[in-house]
Amino acid sequence: MDEPVDSKTVDPSSVDRFPKQKAFNLGDVVTDAAKILTEEERTKLEEQNKRLVTPFQALKLEQEARKHWDLFYKRNENRFFKDRHWTTREFSELLAGEDPAAAASSSPLAKPDNVERISVEKKLLEIGCGVGNLIFPLIEDGHRDYFIYACDLSPRAVELVQKHNLYDERYMKAFACDITTEEVFQTLPEASLDIVTLIFVLSAIHPEKFQSTVANIYRLLKPGGVVLFRDYGLYDMAQLRFKPGHKIAENFYMRQDGTRSYYFAEEEVSKLFCQTGFTVMVNSYIHRRTVNPKENIDVPRIFVQGKFLKPEQT
Fold it and tell me: Does residue 270 carry a pLDDT above 70?
């Protein structure tokens, strides 16, 4: 159950810079304004600075990033993340038959179950596929217009994808790679993709590698191709909960299991993509409050969500 977010928690002084997402859930606040912190929240952020992750430890976390994600999937396998059936609702470009650069909200088109008849003219890449919580719901719901590529830093995650009963190399290919490097071009040529999804992935990458990651995505996309982006927003509940000893750098944290998380400002995301050559289609914060009285859950979340277009060649 979603309840309205108090508008007082959103900075009213911000001027709209780009078109915003529409609200997809009752109670969503969609804005380009950052959350206004309470005194208690400011104190929590200040407390985090009292003991930072040491430079030695931060370097080790970077060097062992693949190992930590492999261990994560060894422990959790496919039990941790829920299937993302919401993606076609909030990113209509993923619907069967939609034009990536001009998709509008619509109902999914019925597709035949015979996979031999699917069109593979268009290509989609999910970066950070995990165990397939995005790609397999697409297949289950009949959205087979794309040949799906799926990559992850963790070889163990890719192995779990390949063992899934819906995995079929007639219409998908999963592979391990570090998207921050040139490694992805060993599998995919430049200008070969129509859609790239980057959903809760960039936040797990060191901020110094954001630019190289987005630049690689730009090279992979065809002119007119689109990046579908969602990630953790600045001052999200999870950021405020970190204790001293977990902060690596500004808005960048270490979790207990050694994986890391960054919390994005909306303007920062737009700037990152624009500097690489993308055009901003939509980009905004989504303030969402999820309430479940039976389980005593009242969780305010903040995401940044956007769509970024590689312009057609002129």
Answer: yes
How far apart are alpha carbons 58 and 37 in whole angstroms?
Answer: 27
d(CA 81, CA 85): 12
Inter-CA distances, 231 with 160, 203, 279, 284, 311, Å? 23, 7, 19, 11, 23
pLDDT of residue 99: 59
Identity of the amino acid at 207: P
Quote the percentage of the chain above a pLDDT of 90: 61
Alpha-carbon radius of gyration of the chain: 19
* Token pair listed for 157: 């995650």
Q: Which token pair is 280? A: 């901003």
DSSP label of 95:
S
Cβ atoms of residues 94 and 84 within 8 Å: no
Asked whether the beta carbons of 295 and 314 are under 8 A apart, the reply is no
Tokens of 85: 């059936």
Phi, psi at 239, each rounded to 5°: -65, -40
DSSP readout, 154-218? -HHHHHHHHHSTT--TTTEEEEE--TTSGGGGGTS-TT-EEEEEEES-GGGS-GGGHHHHHHHHH
Dihedral sign from CA coordinates of 224, 230, 235, 240: negative
Could you state, in order of their start, the residue ranges of all structural domains in the chain?
A: 29-102+119-310
State the pTM of this model.
Answer: 0.84
CATH of domain 29-102+119-310: 3.40.50.150
